[in-house]
Amino acid sequence: MSGFLAHVEQVEVAVASPSAAARSRIAASWRRASVLHGLDPGAQRRIARLEAAALAERVDQAAQLRQVAAQEMDRLFKLVGQSGSGLFLADRDGTVLDRRCRDADHEVFSAIGLEPGALCGECHEGTNGFGTALAEERPVIIHRGDHFLARNTGFTCIGAPLFGSEGGLVGVLDLSTARHDHLPRSNLLLASALVSSARRIESALFRDRYRQDRILVVDQPEQEELSLLAVDRDDFVIGATRAARLAYGLGLAGPVVPRPAADVLGQSEAGREIAEVRRAAILRALSRASGNVSAAARQLGIGRATLYAQMKALKISPGLSRAGGSTDPAPDLS
User: What is the pLDDT of residues 228-283, one digit of tens each?
Assistant: First the structure.
């Protein structure tokens, strides 16, 4: 029996098994492809592709993602491109938006249709680096025979999902190779590099979204990725990366309900740090205003009563402004 037919039979046996999906994530993905999406593991067609107009619309919709990801893709491709790997960016539906590959490897990817516009979600291609990473919302290594379609078993595909500034999926970064000398032991190293790049892209998206606010980097020793919080000028947490959402119970996706940073961070070192930052900002404003609280409040963009309340909480008196000058009478905050 040929390798092609043997793979088709292997997939069909796993799909028919009542327990295979419970024992193996690959078998579970094969079952989704067959039962949920009605795909045939023996199909030999090229990857379906969007028409030019539809692709242009998708590319336009994902303009920010492509722009932010481009620099990181260029950096990573310099490291992995000589190994015969192609680097691909797709949207949250698995539609390829951008790619990096050497001229020498262009033909092998284009031969099956792995190029901008290719539809690589699980509903189109079954188990693969793009679609399965998106379906399971986790990094995946799909090595040769792990693919659902027999025609893809010459490839190794590694996918890392990309989460946007509000925690939801916005795309996937994929590294694929068809090199015959590619060894499985290389996969973990490549996957680590790919995931690191995906996290850098997420951080860049987050910083761009909250570029008018303060970004707090919170150390979480048990997590490999950075936890970023966006804090407004009133010290309310208004945004969080996926890692921060998980660490602080802020919900996996959607807008963050504004909460005082001190409440989110509790009595952690980060909580003390943010109070010190706020205290320093108030002292600077008072100094520049020669101790005039009204003028300092205008600099900070808050009301005089609000500033007095913050000064009281932080044990700041106008005399600590390190400037002489006149002060306003404190309002009655009782």
Answer: 999 998 889 999 999 999 888 999 899 999 998 888 887 555 556 667 777 888 88
Phi and psi at 310, nearest 5°, equal -70, -40
Sign of the four-CA dihedral 189, 96, 58, 39: negative
User: Averaged over 69-75, what is the pLDDT?
Assistant: 96
pTM: 0.79
Buried b / exposed e along 192-220 (16+ C-beta atoms within 10 A):
ebbbebbbbbbbebbbeebeebbebebee
Domain residue extents for the chain: 3-207, 210-266, 272-321
For 37, residues 6+ apart whose C-beta sits below 8 A from its C-beta are: 122, 123, 124, 126
For the chain, the C-alpha Rg in angstroms (whole number) is: 26
How far apart are alpha carbons 229 and 238 in whole angstroms? 8
**Does residue 221 carry a pLDDT above 70?**
no
What residue has token string 């028409």?
51
Please provide the distance, in angstroms rounded to a whole number, between the alpha carbons at the two ends of the chain: 86
Residue 330 has φ and ψ, to the nearest 5°, of -70, 140
Q: And the tokens for 120?
A: 């690589």
Q: How far apart are CA 226 and CA 288, in angstroms?
A: 35
Q: Could you read off the pLDDT of 313-331 as tens digits, one per residue?
A: 888 876 655 444 444 554 4
Distances in Å between the Cα of 178 and the Cα atoms of 147, 181, 301 are: 13, 9, 57
DSSP letters spanning 23-63: H-HHHHHHHIIIIIT---TT--PPPPB--HHHHHHHHHHTH
Let me know how long the chain is. Answer: 334
Asked if the model's pLDDT at residue 187 lies above 50, the reply is yes
Q: Say whether pLDDT at 223 is over 70.
A: no
Architecture of domain 3-207 in this structure: 2-Layer Sandwich (3.30)
